[in-house]
Amino acid sequence: MALLVGGVVGAVLGSLATFVFASYRNGPPVVPPWAFGGAVGATVAIGTIAGIHPAMRAARLSSTVALATA
What we know:
There is one protein chain. The chain is an all-alpha fold. The protein is 81% helix and 0% strand. It has 3 helices and no strands. It is rod-shaped, with a radius of gyration of 19 Å.
């Protein structure tokens, strides 16, 4: 859930930056819906991989080794 919220917040901030830049340059402020969805999807995918990878590595360790190296 937190990944999804973070992805949406990041996409909204990116869209806002696009609108500000476009209005500064007198251009059309356009953010395609697929770009917004892709940004959210990429954030969720990267965050999931970044969370699962260390968890899988830690799961392979015995508890005594994990505690001794912490």
